[in-house]
Amino acid sequence: MIHGGMEHGEIASLLERLKEEAERAFQRRLLAFFGGGQDTLQLSVDFLRSRGEGALILTASGELPGVKLPEGFSLLAHNESEKLLGRTYENLIMDLTENLVPNDLGRAVGLIKGGGLVLLLLPHDFLSQVNVFHRNTLPPPFTPGDVRHYFAFWLKRTLLEADGVAVVEDGNVVKDGLTDAEEWVREPVVVPDGDSLKNIKSLALTRDQLRAVEEIIFFLQERPERGALILVADRGRGKSAALGLAAAAIPGERAPLKMAITSAEREMAEEVFRFFRRGLNLRGVKYREGRGNFFEGEGWTLQYLPPPAASEGRWDVLFVDEAAAIPYRLLLKMARRVRSPVFSTTIHGYEGSGRSFSVRFIQGLTQERFDLRKVKMEEPIRYSPDDPVERWLFRALMLSAEPGEMPGKIDRRRLRFNVEVAGEVLERNEEFFRSYFGIFVLAHYKNTPNDLALLLDGPNQWMASLSLKGTPLVALQLAEEGSLSRQVVEKIYSGWIPPGNLIPDCLIKYYRDESLGGLKGLRIVRIATHPHLQGRGLGSEALKRLEEWAQRGGFDYLGTSYGATEELLNFWLKNGYTPVHVSPSPNPVSGEHSVIMIKPLSEDLKRRLNDLKESFIRRTLEALPDPLRDVEPEVVRLLINPPSVDFSLKMTEEDLKRAVAYAWGTMTYVVSRDVVLPYVKAYFSTKRRPALERSDEILLISRVLQCRSWDETHRLIRKGPVYTMIRLKDVMKLLIRYFTGEEIEKEIGRYPTR
After folding, report:
1. Which pLDDT tens digit goes with each residue over 68-109?
2. Nearest to 70 by CA among 95, 98, 93, 86
3. Are 495 and 562 in the same domain?
4. Residues 6+ apart with CB under 8 A from 690
5. Same domain (yes/no): 586, 700
6. Is residue 3 part of a domain?
7. Do 31 and 150 sit in the same domain of this protein?
8. Residue 536 CB burial class (10 angstroms; 0-12, 13-18, ≥19)
């Protein structure tokens, strides 16, 4: 007996029937064992071995004490699944009895080919288990008893409701997962003998993939002016392989040829490079491969670069893989700088949403009159179309979530704002939750299955929505933070990084004030408006209503953190939020520096806000020459919006004279920066200051505070280099007279006016 119910033979019989059906239809079948332990795993291994097949086995630790694995079985830890993208396995045995990380589950299931089995081993107490994922993301002051467990309930529900999924619970077959599927045979891919690139094109596994390779090659040979090709596909369609094969067809077409590939992470492009090598080898093209995916042949080069660097280069050919994970502004920059770039993305994947990419990005390129070519790949490589396990995965992990239909005319009087427990909403109204989550998907957020689980299970997580007629128009994800004990605050003060307390961690560490950790805060993790309703003030309306809700709930502040751009900073400043921290390190994908902003709600924090602002501005001004040197000056200008306080400028008599000598005399900036800097800092430290144009502020930030070159500075203000040098002297005259007073006039009078 096994699990107190079924005999070994009965489970083997069920596995056999599932396997036969999977092979006949070239689909996958899934069997979930609730209460399955090591004996179930051993039985699964024995069954597959008896058929002469192997499997990928994933456990939390990557170990299986006491189990001897035969040849053809690979054993890895869950978190190593990320290294396997692009590989294909016959079957999967995934032991989830100790931990379930949704990202790992999603990646692993996608590796299994048609005819294969996906066997999931889940614990008896699956619906109440506090696993490692929960413990790693549990924020203080919450305890394991506060975990909500809605993700487990949701996952089990989807398993029970899905086609092609068998469920065994404590030895009893709850459903057998058989669908009576018909036989399916893939149509062969045929490349004509006369095709000069037949050796490359013959590597295509589907007609869909062959068509994609041919269209990319044709596009790159044609190179239309202001052209852009966009390749979209669900996971497992062979998109990255198509890019690699098409890239391999280009060397030798013309020279010199400078090519680049970019993606949010180097590993994402590994499949592109694998097929690029295969294609070059089949063509007999000689090349050298250097470190960091740098390829060089006769008259051509190809290299990998992170997105910020790729967006600055000049390329004959640029491939952008998994473009959905790259900020929109960088994508547009690449499109503008390169004659005919190729963008690709996964529509329903884990790297970010290709739906947002294909909607917003295409709209942007259309408005700028680009010659767009769109290629869509639909046929899976590893299994037949309409695979039931893929359908289950898309539903369970919300990979296919999309916003709801537009409700017609927006009557603001009928808008409803709710803050709710996400799992309760999903339980009673899946359609509403999917529409809510789909707004994040189309808003270009990088949505992962882990985000879904955290939202459902995190005891500090809330979903908020502004809706009309049952359709979410604005979606917000909220995280309750703070209310920390003295012991936890002391640990943070000493350097510990607490899970789920981003803003308290920042306030304690950078302001060295333990009392800030006891404040009760609500962080806006994400906010997004329905893509067809943006620019109508609905996001601000949602924030206004959230503020009212938070005040009734006794919160001390609202807060947010995001990659700082001019557009986003303007939005949050307009809604009354104040920056309190900017990260010294840029995001490696976007190149943006994260900023933390708060809006005090309690009277005590409102009184302390000016002190926080002064401290933030002082630290930011000091950081601009080095760690913040590459932050866009317009972003800096918005960040250092000073409070209305007095500022005392202290200068020695010698330095005052040197400052005047620079502004009115012939002294150069290079030998005068030390006396220019105090005046510029004074200007950005108080609202009591002379009125300057925006371009003058950009000039001061770029040249003086960030120490950018004259060349960089004059380009930023869109003026000539001579004008820029003279204008800095003129601005200094204003600052010297304003901050020094009448006593400086005698010294000024020593210089001829001009």
Report:
1. 788 999 999 998 887 887 788 999 999 999 999 999 999 999
2. 93
3. yes
4. 683, 734, 735, 738
5. no
6. no
7. yes
8. middle
Total number of domains constituting the chain: 4
The Cβ of residue 661 has, within 10 Å, a number of other Cβ atoms equal to 17
Run of H or E residues at 528: strand 520-529
Alpha helices in 124-258 (DSSP H): 132-137, 150-161, 198-201, 207-222, 239-248
* Residue carrying structure tokens 């029937």: 17
Q: What is the pLDDT of residues 509-531, one digit of tens each?
A: 999 999 999 999 999 999 999 98
Angle at 557 between CA 483 and CA 146, to 5 degrees: 35
Maximal C-alpha separation, the chain: 105
Q: Do 162 and 214 reside in the same domain of the chain? A: no
- The C-alpha atoms of residue 403 and residue 359 are separated, in whole angstroms, by 12
Structural domain of 676: 653-748
> Same structural domain for residues 556 and 684?
no
Q: Write down the pTM of the prediction.
A: 0.90
* Cα separation, 396 vs 393, whole angstroms: 5
User: What is the β-pairing status of strands 317-320 and 172-175?
Assistant: unpaired
- Low-confidence stretches of the chain (pLDDT < 50) are 1-4, 351-352, 354
Place of tokens 């990928």: 56
What tokens does 665 get? 């005399």
Does residue 185 belong to any structural domain of this protein? no
Which segments of 411-491 are extended strands (E)?
416-420, 461-468, 471-482
For the segment 117-135, what is each residue's pLDDT rounded down to a tens digit? 999 999 999 999 999 999 9
DSSP class of residue 438 equals H
- How far apart, in Å, are the Cα atoms of 96 and each of 104, 124, 151, 507? 10, 11, 14, 38
CA distances from 214 to 13, 165, 203, 208, 211 (A): 45, 37, 12, 10, 5
Residue type, 265: E
- Residue 99, in any domain of the structure: yes
C-alpha distances in Å from residue 718, one per residue of 104, 330, 332, 686, 714: 49, 21, 21, 27, 6
- Domain of 69, CATH number, reads 3.40.50.11040
Cα separation, 41 vs 119, in Å, equals 9
Report the 3 state secondary structure along 43-98.
HHHHHHHHCCCCEEEEECCCCCCCCCCCCCEEEEEHHHHHHHCCCCECCEEEECCC
Evaluate the omega torsion of the peptide bond into residue 139 and state whether it is cis, within 30 degrees of 0.
no
- The CA-atom distances, in angstroms, between 417 and each of 453, 469, 473 are 23, 12, 10
| Residue pair 471/404 in contact by the 8 Å Cβ criterion | yes
